[in-house]
Amino acid sequence: MKSKEVRQRIRSGEFQQNTSGACDEFVQANVVILPKEFAFDFFLYAYRNQKACPLIDVLEAGVYESRLAKGSDIRTDIPLYHVYENGKLQEKRADIIDVFQDDYVTFLLGCSFTFESQLLKNGISLRHVESKKNVAMYRTNIATIPAGRFSGPLVVSMRPIANEHVDQAIEITKRFPNMHGAPVHIGDPSEIGIDEIERPDYGEFVDIKDKETPVFWACGVTPQAAAVQANIPYMITHAPGHMFITDWTNDDFVS
């Protein structure tokens, strides 16, 4: 399916699952929506933590169509939204039409689903895609660089990669700096504060088999951890794995 068709199906409620594997050739984005008074702090936070928060579009206050997707509506075109109040997840919604305000600024952040499609094209298997699961994501002991009220741990996504393909995976993903780029850690999860690899903080675990290495990339869920720590009065994000699909192709973002 084309990107516009999937967005229409999401908007109508026909498509409600995570978007991993959907529209492989099109860029998908993490989403953060918050009141204008916090927008500069978040912009600065993203600038200082570009590995986890690579900005690919910013919508001005009250605007809900992205320049990356003609005819899109950020209020309806994500399968599942998370609504945070004072740093706590309060609600999960299929759309945010009745809570979106004129002073809300929307940030779109690059997503690792872009480089996943390139890994698959190069014969590197991804078990969560094969199993139709959401990628496993973990809070780490790596601190992000604070900005204003925003701070918190780096969140990473994990993919088991066959040992003989690890170097190739690094080379492929580093070509997409706007989609998290190269891994931030390879190997022992405990070295970055993950003590129970089988219990991700977000997403779903997949087995790490013999002759495979867990590889960790910075993740666009990092701002959600920052929102919890910052006690922002109101903030809306995508649910992990439920992305905004743009009309731009992955090749448009190759470095």
Automatic annotation (TrEMBL):
EC top class named in words: lyase
SUPFAM superfamilies cross-referenced by the UniProt entry: PSTPO5379-like
Keyword match Transferase: no
Classification via InterPro entries: D-Glu_cyclase, Putative_hydro-lyase, UPF0317
The protein's Enzyme Commission number: 4.2.1.-
Keyword entries, A-Z: Lyase
Cross-referenced Pfam families: D-Glu_cyclase (PF07286)
Top-level taxon: Bacteria
Record bears the keyword Lyase: yes
Stored NCBIfam families: PRK05463.1
Similarity section: Belongs to the D-glutamate cyclase family.
Name assigned to this protein: Putative hydro-lyase ACFFHM_19095
